[in-house]
Amino acid sequence: MTLILHRPLGHDLLVAVPEHLRVICPMSQNPVSVRLLGELPARLWGLDLAEWQRRAWSKAGAGQIDQAAGRLLVGIEWVLSPSLQRNLLAQPGAALLGPADDGEQLIAIHVPDNADPAPYLVLFEQNNVDRSSLKAAGLAPGDMYAFADTYNKSLRKRETPYALSMRTENTVDIERVLFAGSYKGITDLVTKYAWPIPAFYVTRLCAFLRISPNTVTTASLLFVILAFWLFWQGHWAAGIAAAWVMTFLDTVDGKLARTTMTYSNWGNIYDHGIDLIHPPFWYWAIFTGLQSAPAGPSQALLFGSLAVILAGYVLNRLEEGEFIRRFGFHIHVWQPIDGFAREITARRNPNMLIFMVAVMLGQPGWGFVAIAVWTIIFLVFHGVRLIQAILQRSAPVSWLEA
Description:
402 residues, alpha/beta, Four Helix Bundle (Hemerythrin (Met), subunit A), 2 domains, 6-stranded mixed beta sheet, two-stranded antiparallel ribbon
């Protein structure tokens, strides 16, 4: 097995792109059509490969996608990274090459404007192709590093491009690559370290059972409500268990949407709306449940902690929003220290981890106070970072993009 995944040494920060490949032509008003070449009776994420490819290319911005005609010619077996797809669609004349036993093979060609696709179809019948002959045919050949972007802004990470063949790689290995590609690079420590392995298998099961991402999101909403009620009643262990199930499903729904190409604006609003609104209700429920606790912090300290947590939650979001408004990217991807801070900052998952440890020690009340202290620490931290960015002479740039 030889997955095409890792950059060679030297491709970690910058990719040297030939001058003739650097100009990306703007997409026309009519999206580029895609022609899928060949047949392959395979399935990917529970879908027929042809259907998965149609969805993937459609999400990348292609127009009509079929196996009879199209300006962008690509073998149906090739699973390409999203940025690779987008840039191929935007560059007439691009010829994507991959390694072969004795040289290079063709993966895709974006037929030059006003050219007849027929002569280019013959090139796909060759086991090996020569770059000079492709240039003579009016094409700009390059490998995946020449055409793909190395930074995914929406997922806050550097992204290794890939071009994987369903004929030569195991399906489950390709699905692992796609799953990893759907994961945010900078997120909290629970999502980053605890959930990836189980989330992969649950996402795969949901895809096989044709369970929609919005169904998973609805299930997570039910656990939001269940955790709220359990916290309100002071049932800490059960409430924490329900909360962790919710956070796990919150990971699965997004990955399921991206791997099965079923994400939508409504799904994004539904998912992120729940994420944004529910944490203050959980804190309120915990505060209420603590009223009947036999021992622990005073009522005044608990009430003050609730006020700090709720105010800090809002103010922290405002700090992040102001950074995005001013500089156009998220504060957590500015510098490495900000990425590390995102793993442990006073958000839902790290706060639930603090509370869980306190419950295990028999001190839920002091766990609630600890969340308030943690909130203050990171409210100050992010506020200082925002001020530093504003006072900086040059506009901040994400270290992942530099």
